[in-house]
Amino acid sequence: MEYFNAFWVGGLICALVQILMEKTKLLPGRIMVLLVCTGAVLGFLGWYEPFKEYAGAGATVPLLGFGNVLFEGVKEAVEEEGALGLFSGGFKAGAVGTSAALIFGYLASLVFKPKMKR
Q: Which residues have a Cβ under 8 Å from the Cβ of 72 and sit 6 or more positions away?
């Protein structure tokens, strides 16, 4: 059942974002920022944790999950370091995922030899 919930919740998030892209004039970058900020706000309100428990990877893999990771990192850093944690917490929490995306993206570019558009 965990796989099913992850599949339909993640699919629903993607479908809603696709509808948002088709029906509004928002640019993809702004929609991505909206998703990250929404994940952080849901984490702040305490709603993201039950959502994550129910949906599993369907909630943590999309950009909503990244926003929540950033929020949790900042929250922990502020508790440990005070106000300075506002600036360092998000970087520490998101470093592994961001590094993995960059490394795997680079490796994929070596394997598939991408070409620039003209």
A: 43, 93
